[in-house]
């Protein structure tokens, strides 16, 4: 019995997420729906950029923060050289879906 309730609850949740209940989708505020979609798109783009940076040889990308808003990717954190900074920006620019790149990275100093 509990398995059936869980299955039904899961199906209803998926239906709600997909806008599958008649009238409910119409009642949703379009701006909220588009904001949610944009948030999901930005989250996916952030993941794609992080993956691309991790795949780059010679780049310690774990020290680079990635945030995305409306397709604009902001890179922050510390890198060892200006060449690594340029490399991170270039890799990010070539990720499909990136509209712009804001570089807020800094060079590491000996004390950091």
Automatic annotation (TrEMBL):
SMART domains, per database record: BON
Database matches in InterPro entries: BON_dom, Lipoprotein_DolP, Transpt-assoc_nodulatn_dom_bac
Swiss-Prot/TrEMBL keywords: Periplasm, Repeat, Signal
Record-linked Gene3D superfamilies: 3.30.1340.30
PROSITE patterns in the record: BON
Residue ranges of domain BON in the record: 41-109
Organism per entry: Solimonas aquatica
GO cellular component: periplasmic space
Protein's recorded name: Osmotically-inducible protein Y
Subcellular location: Periplasm
Signal peptide from the UniProt entry: 1-27
Keyword Signal among record annotations: yes
